[in-house]
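ok so for the tutorial part 2 we go from a plain amino acid sequence to predicted structure tokens. step 1 is just haveing the sequence, like this:
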Amino acid sequence: MNKNSKPRRISARLAVLAGASLAVVLGVLGGTSAAVAAPAPGAQGETRLGMHAVDFDAAVAKAHGYQIVTYANGDRQSVPIDPRSNLPKSVIVHPQPTAQSGGSARPAAANTDYAEVWGNCGRSWIRVSQTGTNQVAVASGFSNTPAKAFFWSWDVSLSDRNGTSHQTYSGAIFDDKAARVWTGLNQFGYTFDRVHNGGATLIDGTICHSGHPSVSIYL
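step 2 — the prediction. this is what the tokens look like for a chain of 219 residues:
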């Protein structure tokens, strides 16, 4: 057997995985990235966001028999103009953090979201956290593969009111888990983030493709 056959087989495997992924960017936008451990679901401070009230349209409310009231603590609510009517009150909207003199608005500590999906090749996961005004950090990766991986490639898409961008990474590894964190990412209004593409080649030759967990928060 040709003594160079083994390196050629490894190179071929790397080419298969790289060809299945989007373009690889070594490094990240907006700061140095670092490997992090996969977070545990249900950790303190995590939230899962769905449809939720953020504001009111006073003109629409008035046209339908409502008025917007503001309580002493800053909470707002839409209530019937005629208290004798049977119209129900709206949900209460809490005030958003506001900028202080000489500083900027600070995000709520719980403004983060986490999701994971499982398959026969392990778990893929993603977490997003607000780190400043119009800024987020995203961490994502995989774990629990049936055999150790020697190469992985990852692509996370981030969407906000200005469009969609991607953060990517690939590299060698010898473990059943891997993760990457990207910091200093500018997002406006909201961020919807998902594992767009990704996977790992295991030492037994198995090529594992990631699922597509997604997260979202309002900023």
